[in-house]
C-alpha cells in the first residue's frame, strides 16, 4: 500500500520550524493584526506590539472603510488585480467584518474625470470585475456621463477591533511603543526581547520602508449624518470626491482627492505634528471646498446631510504620478517592512513574508542531494516486477 505525502507525516521546511520561530510584530493596525493571526494559525509564535491601548487606532480606524474591489483604480492594473483577489479572500476569511451596501454607485463625471465613461467601463470589463450599469433610483446625480452599480462593501471597524483583540489577547503588548530594534545575524531584539524575525507593520511610522520611496500625508475626512438608505456615491476617475457609509447606519464620510490631504511631508514626525495641530479654521475652509465639490454632482447633499465632525489620519503613500496602491513587502536581514496600500491587500503581505522566509537560508534545503536516479531505479524495478508477474 502506498501512502500519500500528505498523510505520511512528512513536513515542509516551513512546517518544521513552526514551533521554533518567534515573530515580533510592530503595529496593531489591520496589517499587524492580520499578519499576527495568520502566522499564529500556521503554528508560529508571535507577539504584537502596539503603542496605543487598543488595536486599529491609527489609519486602520480612521479611513473611508471601503472594502475595495478595484473600481477605484482604473489607472493602475496591479492595484485592481490585488483588490479583486483580496476582496474575495476577505469575504472568506473575515465573513462578519464587512457588510453590503444596498446601492453602491460609481459615477464618471462629464468633464472632470481623467478618463471618459466608455474607457472606464472598458477597463473594468477587461479586468473581470463584475458590475451592472444604470442610473441610480431616487437620487439625482448631475454633471455625470455614466454610472455603474458595484458590490463593494463597508468594513465594520468595531467588530474588527473586537475580533482581533479576542484572537490575539495572549500575545498582545498594548501600550508598548517600540523604541529600539537591532538586526543581528541570529535574531532581532525588540527593546531587548529576542525574536527570530520582526515585521514592521507601522505603515512607515517606526522606520521608513527600505527600497520604496514614500511620503507622509496628513488627511481630513468629514463625518455627516444622512438618510440611512442613501447610496454610496463615488466619483471617478481623478481629483474627485465620494460619500460612503460607515458601520453605523446613517453616518457617512465625505472624502475628496484634492481637499482631503493636509500637505505632504518627508517624515512621519512632521505629518503627525500637522495632524495633531489642525486649526478649526482649516477644517472649516476644507469643509466648504468639499461640500462645494460634492454638490456639483449630488445637488441634494446640503439638504440631506448634516455635518458631524472631522476625521484625521496619516496616509503613507508611494511616490509616483501613477495611482499605485498595491501592498509592498521589503526585507532587510531579519526585518520585514510592510507598506500597505489598502485593507483588502492584507493577504498579499503575509504571503510575501512567508515566501521570503521559505526562499532564505533560514529554511535551507541546499544540502539535499538529487534523488532522481534512485527514483528511476525504483520505478524501473517495479515495472520489471509487474512485467514478470504478468508472465506468470
Ligand atoms: C483618509 C484615508 C482613507 C482611506 N480609505 C481607505 C478605504 O476606504 N479602504 C481601504 O482599504 N483603505 C483605506 N485607506 C488605507 C488604509 O487605512 C491603510 O491601508 C491601512 O489602514 C494601513 O494599515 P496598517 O496596519 O499598515 O497601518 P496603521 O493602521 O496605521 O497601523 C500601524 C500601527 O502601528 C502602530 N505603531 C506605530 N509606531 C509604533 C511603535 N513605535 N511601536 C508600537 N506601535 C507603533 C500605530 O499605533 C498603528 O496602530 C485609507 C487611508 C486614509 C488615511
Automatic annotation (TrEMBL):
<feature type="domain" description="FAD dependent oxidoreductase">
    <location>
        <begin position="25"/>
        <end position="89"/>
    </location>
</feature>
<protein>
    <recommendedName>
        <fullName>FAD dependent oxidoreductase domain-containing protein</fullName>
    </recommendedName>
</protein>
<dbReference type="InterPro" id="IPR036188">
    <property type="entry name" value="FAD/NAD-bd_sf"/>
</dbReference>
<dbReference type="Pfam" id="PF01266">
    <property type="entry name" value="DAO"/>
</dbReference>
<dbReference type="InterPro" id="IPR006076">
    <property type="entry name" value="FAD-dep_OxRdtase"/>
</dbReference>
